[in-house]
Amino acid sequence: MTTTVLTVGKLWAAAGRYTASGETEIMLSNTGGGMQRWATTADDTAPTILPNQAHPLPPLTSRAMTLPDTVRLWVVGASKGTAAIEV
Asked: Which strand ranges, in their side-by-side order, compose the sheet holding 17-19?
């Protein structure tokens, strides 16, 4: 598996975004000590929902998912940290 590390901040930002290339099975992991949240979009436009409304990813947990081709996965956190995506 290949690991991509995202830099996570309090707001939606390109540093916390991953773009699927083809239908992609991933494991999203919260490698930090604070709550992280995630959302997807069809393009590089940041999610229109507020970060606290996105799907939760508690500290030191992972979630498997399949992303359709070109979908963007965005990750934010209560504090600056990192998230890992294994493909």
From this structure: 17-19, 72-77, 36-41, 55-57
C-alpha span between 87 and 67 (Å, rounded) = 11
What's the pLDDT tens digit per position in 27-73?
A: 999 988 899 999 999 999 999 999 999 999 999 999 999 999 999 99
Asked whether the beta carbons of 36 and 80 are under 8 A apart, the reply is no
Which residue ranges form the domains of the chain, and what is each CATH number?
3-86 (2.60.120)
User: What is the pTM (predicted TM-score) of this model?
Assistant: 0.95
15 backbone dihedrals φ, ψ, rounded to 5°: -65, -20
- Say if residues 21 and 29 touch (Cβ distance below 8 Å): no
